[in-house]
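Class, study these two lines:
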Amino acid sequence: MKIWIKYLIGIILGIALAFVLPSGSKNTQDTLDFIVEFVIRFGRYPLIPLLFFSISTACYKLRDEKLMLKTGLWTTSVIILSTALLVVLGLLAALIVKLPRIPMTIESSSEIPGVDILGLIRQLFPYNGVQSLLNDSYLLPCFIFAGLVGSGANDDKHAAAPAIAVFNSIARVAYIVMSFFTEILAIGMIVLSCRWTLGVIALKKTGLYGELFALLLVLLALMAFVVYPFIIRILCGEKHPYRVIYASAAPIMAAFISGESNMTLPLLIRHGNESLGIRHRVNGVSYPLFSIFARGGAALVTSVCFIVILRSYSMLEIKMSTVIWIGFWSFLLSFLLGEHPIGGTFLLLTILCIKHGGGYEAGYLLLREAAPVLGCFAAAFDALTAMTGSYIVAEKTDSIEAQELKKFI
């Protein structure tokens, strides 16, 4: 059975379970929260070993085949351009579609969150290189350490050959273990979708966010079925671009239900390899980089939400200078969310409200109840972007072995 079918069945069962469980029960909620946390831990459990050995061997191959620079340039370009595209799309949609105002709140917050840029830089090179493998949220230190190991081994191929052979073998074993975890995660979808459904039901009772969610759903469908297939058709000459979207089904489901980018990454890696036929030399580095930096989904959702907040506070027309300001900071700050595989969208919205000032400092509180679902939409956009972007990078670096549709996992 295809993975996406297993995940879909799990999601449907979870939705049904949400209507059976006693609503408002604290014991039920506590138990559900515990199981959800366990499922997320389970999904992320095989990630770091897989990344370290896969990235090391992939960087070794890229440097050996003189594809390091080309792959890096294409990956960086696609990440930047896709993020800009999503920001522009979000701003245009929010300006064209007049979403209902959200009632003001008198609640204030004493906590002022932010992104510790210097702290992020310090984490890139800890005092002990092995410590870079201990951070299960911020994957960039692991990526840098593994990349240095793989690239450095290429300087003396004769001496490094035994180590690379061992690394390659361990990477294959780690991949097999990861594949097992992704299969079992279909059961976890039941609990994740149950909690997601309960959250949506609670939000529906407020009657405040339905139009916002509908707009984001339309934008997600637009990107999945129109914009990205068109880009793949133009850039890659792919006659059947919806093959890529089909391969993205399971990762998008997992991202949309969990809102967790790191938990979705193993699914992306596996579908990129087994469904799209992306070779390891690109598959091993592109997906982690997209997961860390390509947070255009968070930028899009933040842009839409900030427009909603501005209109909720004031009936005045939004100036073009304000629109440019929102787009610029949403775009720029989205690249710093790598430390936040979950909750990064609401953090970005909070920073924008505080940074904008002018009485909007607590504007993010208008959407605090909807934050988990908003994060789920952002994660779905990012999963779709990672799959599409990595396919483009692989196509431009001749790193694809075409697979028949019936062999897609």
About this structure: Residues 157-206 form the longest helix (50 residues). The chain has a mean pLDDT of 88.
